[in-house]
Amino acid sequence: MLALTFLASLPERVEAVAKTDNYILLYNQQTKIDKNALTKNGNKIIFDLSQAKVMVVRSNNPNELKKVPGVIGLAKDKRSVRLPGNEVKNITTVPQTKAAAAQCASVETSCPLQWDLARINVPQAWKTTQGSKEVRVAVVDTGVNSSHDALGSNYDKASSRSFVQPDADCPQEVDASNPEDQQGHGTWVATHIGGRNGTLMTGIAPNTTLVGIRVLNACGYGYDSWILAGLMYASTINVDIINMSLGGYVCAEGIVPESYYCNNAESVGDSQTVWKTYTQIVKFLMERGTLVIAAAGNDHVRLDREGHVAGPSSVAFAVPMNHPANNLYGLSAVPAGIPGVITVAATNHITAKGGPDETLYGQYGENLKDQLSYYSNFGRRIDVSAPGGSVNYNIPPFDCKSAECSRLRYTSIANADNPGDFGAWGVDANGNPCATCYAFAIGTSMAAPQVAGVAALALAAHPNMTAKELSAWLKKSVTRFLNKNETPSAAEDPASPHYNYDMDYGTPGIPTYEEMGKGVIDAAKAVAAK
């Protein structure tokens, strides 16, 4: 059971006997790739990413591939990336009329359930722009439900693609080649960026052109080759901004003796090649005008400036108890840690104060706003924060003793007091496509599209910005946190009863501006004159 919980997003052990598998080949930048050399002896090109000096080849002889001229790294295709863990959702079915006049957002107010858009000043930004069809945003995720009520005519279904391939470990997958959402997550992300202004919700930039690129299957995971191919496809269709609400970890630093996951050559395997390949692809995209925005991750670990995990504890990455598998030290976050990526942490709305019998160990940050969400990764690698929501008391649900503590929904729709981020969900609770499903969700997956939507508004207001300029502009387009953060790190003292798996209750909060980015993203500032 433990392995099923956490090993899907971590480095796989190297197999002793070679069999027919997909391999990622990383080339020297000066190499002219000889595709004929790749296809001899029965090898097959799966994805041609040669513009970025990367190829994906199916072969039963990896040693032969290593000898191909110009190859500087070879990695077996693995499931390094998936939907971030610890994300919580509550799905509800709410029909929404498509009447043009039924719009809940305006330049004066946000939709009642979308406190997150009010916090980042979307209504004020709309006085300048609601986006432009010339700005193209790709959602690299689980796909998009093109029939959902919350999606508008700005969705470019014709350009949307799936790079998912059939996988025996995911029997839920219906049609790997179909870009439609079979999990629900990608629809939430897409409609938050550019969904239509309807009766329940709106996207941040509803006039933006959206493209769905499916790289995660119905089970929520993807192979590295799927993600890399999806990123490169975005470049071919002139996408300006890519949102990646997904992630995983690899042994990018090589052997780290103190690491549970990266302590020997077998554990490390070809992780360094995987890291270098993601780095090369992101660099290629940036140079051609595409900015990548990614979720920081939901394990409440500290990331140093290079994206490496810098501490020994997480919030129950593997199990809610002291266990060495919760220690991610030695790993590096992908794509959140990759150079050039805008990395987004999550904040909550307001931490409600509970009674003494509602939590196991008490609380922190009661009645304060803009607190780091209990699950969010943090550290020097974070560029900005955005509202990702939290449970009502902003503590891990396994520390809650009441339903009010872990509540995501509103107490009544009139109160609109939902702690979770409200948005469209692409499937119902049984996994069937649903055009009227919505969810109260929390995660850095919910925070990243807030920044992607603001980026789309910024580019509409400043159409001549390069990707590098847009990146710098977003880091400046922030407001100060409304309150000093009091969310602590996970306990790192072995003497603590919470060591290695829970919050370090009773200790000072994580430094607000040092480890939560420059501030909270602000749409109004992003569209303002430079």
Structural overview:
The protein is built from 13 helices and 22 strands. The model is unreliable at 1-17 (pLDDT under 50). The strands form 6 sheets. Strands 8-9-7-11-13-16-18 form a 7-stranded parallel sheet, sandwiched between helices. Strands 2-3-1-4 form a 4-stranded antiparallel sheet. It folds into 2 domains: 19-76, Peptidase S8 propeptide/proteinase inhibitor I9 (Alpha-Beta Plaits), CATH 3.30.70; 81-527, Peptidase S8/S53 domain (Rossmann fold), CATH 3.40.50. By secondary structure, it is of the alpha/beta class.
As for the number of domains, it is 2
Supply the helix-strand structural class: alpha/beta
Please describe the biggest sheet, giving its number of strands, its sense, and whether it closes into a barrel.
7 strands, parallel
Write down how many β-strands occur, each being a DSSP E stretch of 2 or more residues.
22
GO molecular function: serine-type endopeptidase activity
Keywords: Hydrolase, Protease, Serine protease
Protein name: Peptidase S8
Organism: Thermosporothrix sp. COM3
